[in-house]
Design brief:
The chain is mainly beta. It has helices at about 15, 25-30; strands at about 35-40, 45-50, 55-65, 70-75, 80-85, 95-100, 115-125, 130-150, 150-165, 170-180, 185, 195-200.
Length: about 210
């Protein structure tokens, strides 16, 4: 877990405003695939959300200026499997990850505080492995319905402190969760800024 002040999200560029119309009804009431583009400071990211009738979903994320593509499989709202590909050489060229979560409820709506942990088992491109556990302390901040591009969607804001139990390294993120999309975006320095929302786009692919 994809802030204190509630801000409108429809601050799009003129180019985005001139883009193809978005099917807001399909977003709110169906399972059409959705693409969000956003940025945290100067770092742009693209998130593609593929929802299933079962409530499960698959997310694709492109970040680090296009140098990293990650795929996540969510079952009952919980991340279970991940895959990454990158533009880097060596062990970080790709990875597969399995997650075991403790304390995370199914379909968590982000509207209450929660402490939970996630243990990840990673296999890197060179065959090396890593097992680590991270604890999360999520704090709910606000919720409401807002303009996301041309659509009115629910937005839940929160902040998360995390600790890597192996290294003691800590981090803080600012989270925005979209219940109709069953997906969230996050920023490390401040709340991420949403740039565009689409229902027509080219599917993301792994980096060869």
């Amino acid at each position: 877990m994809m802030r204190l002040v509630v801000l409108p999200l429809a601050l799009l560029t003129s180019a985005a405003a001139a883009a193809e119309p978005v099917d807001c009804d399909a977003i709110e009431n169906g399972t059409v695939a959705v693409e969000l583009t956003y940025h945290d400071a100067d770092e742009p990211s693209v998130l593609q959300i593929y929802r299933e009738l079962s409530g499960n979903r698959v997310l694709w994320l492109k970040t680090l200026n296009g140098k990293l593509v990650a795929k996540g499989v969510f079952v009952d709202g919980i991340l279970t499997i991940g895959e990454t590909t990158s533009a880097y050489a060596g062990k970080f060229k790709s990875s597969t990850i399995t997650y075991t979560n403790e304390g995370m409820p199914r379909h968590f709506d982000r509207r209450s505080d929660l402490k939970y942990s996630s243990t990840s088992s990673v296999v890197y491109a060179d065959g090396s492995t890593k097992l680590s556990t991270t604890t999360f302390d999520y704090k709910f901040k606000s919720a409401g319905k807002e303009a996301v591009g041309s659509c009115m969607l629910d937005v839940v804001r929160g902040e998360t402190d995390r600790v890597d139990q192996s290294t003691g390294k800590t981090s803080h993120t600012y989270n925005m969760y979209f219940p109709q999309l069953t997906a969230s975006i996050s920023g490390r320095t401040a709340e991420p800024v949403l740039d565009d929302i689409k229902t027509k786009f080219d599917p993301m692919m792994p980096i060869p």
